[in-house]
Amino acid sequence: MLLTLVFLYLLVTIAIGLVAARRVKNSSDFAVAGRQLPLIMIVTTTFATWFGSETVLGIPAKFVNGGLGNVVEDPFGSATCLILVGVFFAARLYRMNLLTISDFFRERFGRGVETVCSIIIMLSYLGWVSAQATALGLVFNLLSGDVISVPVGMVIGVVSILAYTLFGGMWSVAITDFMQMIILVVGLSVLAVFASDMAGGAGKVLELASSRDLFNFWPEPSLKDVLFFIAAAITIMLGSIPQQDVFQRVMSADSERSATRGPIIGGLCYGLFAFVPMFLVTSALIIMPERTQELLADDPQKVLPTLVMEKMPFVMQVLFFGALLSAIKSCASATLLAPSVTFVENIWRPWRPHMSDRQELLTMRITVGVFSVLVLAYAIQMQGTSIYEMVSSAYQVTLVGAFVPLVCGLYWRRATTQGAVFSIVWGVLTWGVLLLTPAGEEFPAQLAGLLAAGLGMVVGSLAPQFMANAHGSHHRLAGMEPLK
Question: Is the C or the N end of the chain the one with fewer CB within 10 Å?
Fold first, then answer.
């Protein structure tokens, strides 16, 4: 019965998405909803996009194993990222009237930087979307009692998302996100109240969390621990700023006011509501202590679904899986669309400069389908990797490769194309070397890459100017007559 309701829910979201697709008349409608979304929809689509499988399944699993310090990347880094976007980036980028974030790199640094940053951004989405596909496979596997395997569940889930994203683009994503956010917030809120009663009250849950030191946030006062803590915090906080999904929400707004306030409000809502799944999993330690300990040792991501399936009535199960599917589908639809639009606009279009808007729209839809196949293949290959790790690692490449050129391009007038190239090369190479060698166990690879990227930008931008000044000074000195 529960599985049947889940399939009905999938069909309803597909129907809503397809109705929304009727608004798509051109590539701008598909990519950024014709820049017509009001503030409330910018808030809901931002919140719903970020509130994915890692928030419902991944974050609670990390929290019960290591406390708040173990989830500094997400939700703390993620929520801060959205606030930073609203405060420092949204207004400047919105005024430029661009279709993708990579368009900025072309306007500021040229075609070469645009292409490289586009590839970096696209690669980062493999891990994020694959995490959502993995969660969909897990849901169908649990609900069917292992009748539907995890890979088959992945295929079913991705196809259901593809059905409306392929046709409706950002319009379908935004409207389904609005509906899914309501289901998500209501469902998890009711579950939290119900679980609190089962555990003997919220006070007992919080008391247990305190007794297990789960509220510990700061690292041990050693240099190595502090460095890895900082690296974890900035991975999503800064690494997700130069991402197409965030940029799409900014550019889809109907005004600069909506573009700036939407991410800020969405980030605050996300940061606060992400504590609800953590509360639910902590309550499981009281409601089913032995079973929870077994799951923590085996697969912590299954604690919350198991609590709902084994200890809660049917109505609560419907609410939970409705909320979980809403979180996964809203996140996955956005992250399927973002890299596809980036590929067509910034990699394919330069090779086909005379492509009509109708052809561009068709190419975007084909690319969404192709990227979905790649995501499924990657997700199946990465089975066994935790959802949280798949998401957090996805942002490291944009942190070291695209963040510094974006910030300096917007805020430093002396930044040059050579500086951007140095930044990308030094950042990615340093990150790669530490990631693949034992050195990465002593110093965090993403932090080293970010520092190298910043140094590369400064050296690459200022060195030619310094050398030109030095050369001019030499000529002036050479031309002077000796003193008598």
Answer: C
